[in-house]
Amino acid sequence: MTMYLVGLLSINCLIGWIVYKVFYRKRKLYNDRFGMVMAMSCSGILSLNMSMIFQFLFVDHIFLGLVLTVLIGVAIGVAFGSLVKFQSLLAGFSHGVVGSLMGNMLGIVIKDPSICSLPTPYFQMIEKNMMIFSVFGSLLVLITILLVYYSLRV
């Protein structure tokens, strides 16, 4: 299970790095509106999915995982937001923080269903839910990145 999650995390990091490189090469084409949309959507979905997977990996250290993923979300948001102007940097920063906090909350609830008073059968499906949510999140990252890239081309 750990290797599966590490593999998905590395795939998400690779997707984020490749997309950043592509957007960095084309940064002169962006207006302010596209910069805001790109910074908000890319940093929000990447930080959400990566922080959820980090919470799945850090089983016993919830606070350490929370602090680490918020810092990673900030770095992702600032990286994507710095491609255009300062207002897009602020939007990327805030959406990176919010996305990482949402991913942390989602990961913690999936790992411990008693937090939300979910029924007992959910305790037998924790690993299955972790796999489903991590694959679904990775698909959302891919779809969001493709839509943002498509909007650049149109």
Rounded mean pLDDT is 88
Low-confidence stretches: none
What's the gyration radius in Å? 16 Å
Q: Measure the end-to-end span.
A: 40 Å
Number of distinct beta strands: 0
Which secondary-structure class do the elements indicate? mainly alpha
Residues in helix, %: over 70%
Strand content: under 5%
The tally of structural domains comes to 1
What's the story with the biggest beta sheet? none
- Helices, by number, come to 5
List the helices and strands and how they pair.
Elements: H1 2-25, H2 32-57, H3 62-81, H4 86-111, H5 126-153
Helix pairs in contact: 1-2, 1-5, 2-3, 2-4, 2-5, 3-4
Description:
The chain has helices at 2-25, 32-57, 62-81, 86-111, 126-153. It is mostly helical and 154 residues long. The protein has one domain (2-19, 33-153). Helix 1 (2-25) packs parallel to helix 5, helix 2 (32-57) runs antiparallel to helix 5 and helix 3 packs antiparallel against helix 4 (86-111). The longest helix has 28 residues, at 126-153. The chain contains five helices and no strands. It is elongated.
How would you concisely characterize the structure shown here?
The protein is 81% helix and 0% strand. It contains five helices and no strands.
Please name the defining characteristics of this protein.
154 residues, 81% helix, mainly alpha
